[in-house]
Design goal:
The protein is of the alpha/beta class. The chain folds into two domains: 231 residues, Purple Acid Phosphatase, chain A, domain 2 (4-Layer Sandwich), CATH 3.60.21; 75 residues. It has nine helices and 15 strands. A hairpin with a 5-residue loop joins strand 11 and strand 12. Helix 2 packs parallel to helix 3 and helix 8 packs antiparallel against helix 9. It is globular.
Length: 349
């Protein structure tokens, strides 16, 4: 049997941004659903963080998710196995109250897993492990120890894996907890990475500047062979443009419509020509433009990789600052606190 695995979809992200939802929709309509048909998929495993905000849902975001995702899967006759992630659990120390259970009860094809559960996918016995917290930690450990399942599918926070291209998470659980399993597949971190039997599958699309040029998509999982096939998302949201007295007349700005663009000025000997170049970008109806002057990073280019500073978002900068700080404190613990504060700030209207 082949099943589709997708994770960290974050419906309603960026304060229910229409620009992002339109970008998501292109992926679902042109990549995700056609692949399900082509591969004759009858089951989808959603490994957590289906919705973005754990504290509430914008009605238009819920309508978008139902109309463009859940209604379609229901019409296709596809079973959806949904694992609770940290963004869909209302309380930090419990999974009992969660968005996917409360919002999706009308769908008979959707099953929600708020605690560790053995589930058969075809002939393969698997263990679904939702977000581990203070309330369910002991029970989850016991189930992990006793289960005869070969594979784990979950929403796990394991240390030593990349949160993005720039940051390695040093807090969380030890991957040795899952050493008995042939394969452990997880959501939570948005970039793909693997160590030994553990694989983080990454989310379907770009959401922040740290995602730029980082491959996204979903996976097809063969329950007989345990083989994973990545189905990549070819569509991008974030673009970097290097300006070096680039002539605006020959520059094609049309592909940046509804995209987020960072214009990095490395050479500008004529301000009027630069103004015309910027005007052409705005005329192309870009979603957002950030202009970075080369002088803002004077001396940086001699010591570091350009891509790093050009791609960093707020969390990456904060994490890098904490790592470099000369303080005798548990830096991974501080990073965890900052991550939680930042996520809660992003969720505020």
């Amino acid at each position: 049997m082949k099943v589709a695995i997708i994770t960290d979809q974050h419906f309603g992200c960026r304060k229910n941004s229409k620009v992002f939802h339109d970008y998501f929709l292109r992926f679902y309509n042109e990549i995700f659903f056609p692949t399900l048909v082509e591969e004759k998929i009858t089951a989808v495993v959603d490994m957590g963080d289906t919705f973005d905000s754990r504290k509430g849902i914008d009605f238009s975001a819920l309508y978008w998710a139902k109309n463009n995702y859940y209604d379609i899967l229901e019409k296709m006759g596809i079973a959806v196995h949904t694992i609770v992630g940290n963004h869909t659990a209302y309380y930090k120390n419990s999974n009992d109250v969660n968005a996917v259970d409360l919002l999706l009860r009308e769908y008979q094809n959707v099953t929600v897993y708020s605690e560790a559960t053995e589930v058969k996918l075809g002939n393969l016995k698997t263990l679904f492990v939702p977000w581990i917290n203070q309330e369910n930690e002991k029970k989850t450990y016991n189930i992990i120890e006793k289960t005869s399942s070969k594979c784990v599918l979950g929403h796990l926070e394991l240390r030593g894996f990349n949160a993005n291209k720039f940051v390695v998470i040093e807090h969380g659980y030890d991957k040795e907890i899952f050493k008995k399993f042939s394969l452990v597949l997880s959501g939570h971190y948005h970039t793909r990475s693997s160590k030994e039997n553990v694989r983080y599958l990454g989310n379907p699309y770009e959401m922040y500047w740290t995602d730029v040029d980082d491959t996204r998509g979903f996976h097809i999982f063969d329950t007989e062979t345990l083989e994973l096939k990545a189905v990549n998302n070819p569509f991008k949201m974030f673009y970097k443009i290097l300006y070096e007295d680039t002539p605006h007349q020959t520059f094609d700005a049309t592909k940046y419509e509804n995209k987020i663009v960072k214009l990095i000025i490395r050479k500008s000997s004529n301000s009027k020509k630069l103004d015309k170049f910027v005007e052409k970008l705005y005329t192309a109806n870009i979603a957002e433009l950030k202009i970075v002057q080369n002088t803002d990073f004077e001396g940086y280019y001699q010591t570091s990789n350009d891509d790093e500073i050009e791609s960093e978002d707020t969390m990456s900068i904060l994490n890098r600052y904490i790592c470099d700080a000369e303080v005798d404190l548990d830096k991974s613990f501080i990073q965890g606190i900052i991550q939680e504060i930042y996520q809660e700030a992003c969720e505020m209207v």
